[in-house]
Recover the amino acids of this structure.
């Protein structure tokens, strides 16, 4: 299973792709940041991020997109842009028939470090260890996106995806799976680790 | 000038299109609501609203899209969905090279009724009078979308669009205008007033 994790943000949106391996292991496929220039207008910033997310989805053809659940209570200054980017990621996935899962920051910290109150640095260190990386993934947004993806891979069996039901019919799912495997055959190159 | 107003919402997103007429008058082109079913998952709801907004833009080819400015402080329960739909409207416009303007609810009330503290009913009555309608536009979300569009038409000369700069270069603007007039020739039919 391939999961694309999105840590939503308007200035820096972290994106990380991991594949599951046998025995609760995971492999880094790609990680990076999609950003937008705070000096441009909000509509063009959102369009830029939407196009970037489209490219990531087309390049890596994930089975699931895992998005950090955004809460209205936090960071009033940036919450609107964050919510909007999360919405763009969900629409981009839904347009391709890819299921969307949402996980809270505490779920991610608990899954990756064992503690729902772990700090950023601790999450980065554990993600580097889990994925067998020599260096900590940077920036932090990129590490968070990888942590989201790993959290989804390691979610308890039978758990609903981040509390969201996914409403595709069996026929839609079959169609999406077939289209996905066709696109994957066309687009998927050798795994890369370049940051974008 | 044709303005498409969007009163963002996930369950009911009001959409209204008006044309300016000489002498500070305006004509209703179309008004309605794009909605999504609260029983389905958030990703599919957002996709449904995005597709609906795309249809409105393709059908009416506005010169400007006016979106209500959403504040994080209000309506914590629905603000995330509202912000996400506003983001989708902005991206849909930006993708077509259509400038986006944002206006606050008080700006809209002041422009349409003369008072920034007017009630919903008062806005509906004034919009009906301004557009020469026999009945009040309903639901309220649809009336708000028309009020947004009229507010944009009547904004003070030289005012920045809702405080946002629009960052298209002159060449991009010329290209967008040319493409728009081509699309308009292809798609634009007789003005309709059906609610969707």
């Amino acid at each position: 299973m391939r999961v694309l994790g999105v840590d939503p943000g308007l200035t820096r949106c972290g994106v990380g792709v991991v594949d599951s391996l046998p025995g609760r292991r995971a492999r880094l496929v790609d990680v990076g940041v999609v950003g937008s220039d705070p000096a441009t207008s909000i509509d063009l910033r959102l369009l830029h991020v939407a196009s970037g997310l489209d490219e990531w989805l087309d390049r890596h053809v994930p089975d699931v997109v895992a998005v950090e659940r955004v809460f209205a209570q936090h960071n009033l200054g940036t919450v609107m842009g964050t919510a909007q980017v999360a919405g763009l990621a969900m629409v981009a996935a839904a347009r391709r028939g890819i299921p969307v899962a949402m996980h809270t920051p505490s779920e991610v910290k608990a899954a990756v470090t064992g503690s729902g109150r772990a700090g950023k640095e601790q999450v980065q260190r554990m993600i580097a260890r889990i994925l067998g990386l020599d260096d900590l993934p940077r920036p932090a947004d990129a590490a968070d996106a990888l942590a989201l993806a790993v959290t989804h891979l390691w979610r308890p069996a039978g758990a609903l995806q981040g509390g969201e039901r996914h409403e595709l019919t069996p026929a839609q799912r079959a169609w999406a799976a077939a289209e996905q495997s066709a696109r994957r055959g066309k687009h998927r190159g050798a795994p890369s680790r370049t940051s974008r």
